[in-house]
Amino acid sequence: GLSQYSSDPRTEWDLSAHSTREQLLEAVRNLRYKGGNTFTGLALTHVLEQNLKPDAGARLEAEKLVILLTDGKSQDDANLAAQTLKNLGIEIFAIGVKNADEAELRQVASEPLELTVYNVLDFPLLSSLVGKLTRVLCTRIKERSHKETAGSAVKDTPVSTGPQLSPTDLKISAVTSKSMHLAWSPPLRPPKKYRVVYYPSKGGTPKEVVLEGAVSSLQLSNLTSHTEYLVSVIPVYDSAAGDGLRGVTSTLPLSSPRSLRVSELSHNSLRLSWEAAQGATHYLVLCSAAPDGAED
Predict the structure, then answer these.
(1) Which positions fall inside the Fibronectin type-III domain (predicted)?
(2) In this model, does residue 158 exceed pLDDT 70?
């Protein structure tokens, strides 16, 4: 599966899209580069929520590997998103090109870093990594699969999504210029935790709140006024994440002062009055002479 990202991640194809090597290589040849910003944290969250799901071709019993390819420093918190993936047993390989931040690559990648972090000076040099990276990936999958099957014959892990593992009926209410309230119906099997991720739809730093599995509501505050927000509620189990709930809503604009009136005019003063704006703590009053040619 492959996703490209800038300020808005985009799935190019799912894990289940291509069944042969030839189909996959043809898809790579037809890929068009997506320019823009570098919101790596948002991209990793997109991979977890959209690409590593059964309906996108992910098998819960299969090993999960994410290869991050980036040519710049992230403009949001990539480490927080990466840690969430790693906590779910998803292994991250980080490959940097040109202006990538080596320290950030090492933060995002899984251990051992000598096998999961790569950095090259320019795009053509990526070809030099293919052989080694292929061998490392295949070896890691075999190692991890062997460890899991050697442990016990039966795993106590979720093997399906749906009402068993996924919350339903997300309600967004009490929306103000800087807050909103979220509530949802929990799944039949309570999760260990919930991850609530929210961010402005036109690009911005994703923020995350982690809740205990017994909680099914949250008040979001300190939001930006008059802004559309994307919200995701993701249930997290011991070794899997259920399908997330998603919602979109806009905060209200800040109220404005109204009914501006001018009175008590003199040769060098005037009095202004207006109806108060709800919630305002101060006012900034600007005045200037009328445009050239007009009467002062």
Answers:
(1) 166-255
(2) no
CA 283 to chain centre: 36
| 141 burial type by CB count under 10 A (0-12 exposed, 13-18 middle, 19+ buried) | middle
Q: How far apart are CA 132 and CA 115, in angstroms?
A: 9
Kindly report the CATH number that applies to the domain delimited by 168-251: 2.60.40.10
Q: Are 78 and 107 in contact (CB under 8 A)?
A: yes
SS3 of the chain? CEEECCCCCEEEECCCCCCCHHHHHHHHHCCCCCCCCCCHHHHHHHHHHHHCCHHHCCCCCCCCEEEEEECCCCCCCHHHHHHHHHHCCCEEEEEEECCCCHHHHHHHCCCCHHHHEEEECCHHHHHHHHHHHHHHHHHHHHHHHHHHHHHCCCCCCCCCCCCCCCCEEEEEECCCCCCEEEEEECCCCCCCEEEEEEEECCCCCCEEEEEECCCCEEEECCCCCCCEEEEEEEEECCCCECCCEEEEEECCCCCCCEEEEEECCCCCCCEEEEECCCCCCCCCCCCCCCCCCCCC
40 touches 5 (CB < 8 A): yes
Question: How many other C-beta atoms lie within 10 A of the C-beta of residue 295?
Answer: 4
Residue (of 285, 281, 288) closest to 273 by Cα position: 285
Segment 240-245 shows an average pLDDT of 75
Domains of the chain by residue range: 2-147, 168-251
Q: Please name the CATH architecture into which domain 2-147 falls.
A: 3-Layer(aba) Sandwich (3.40)
d(CA 293, CA 296): 9
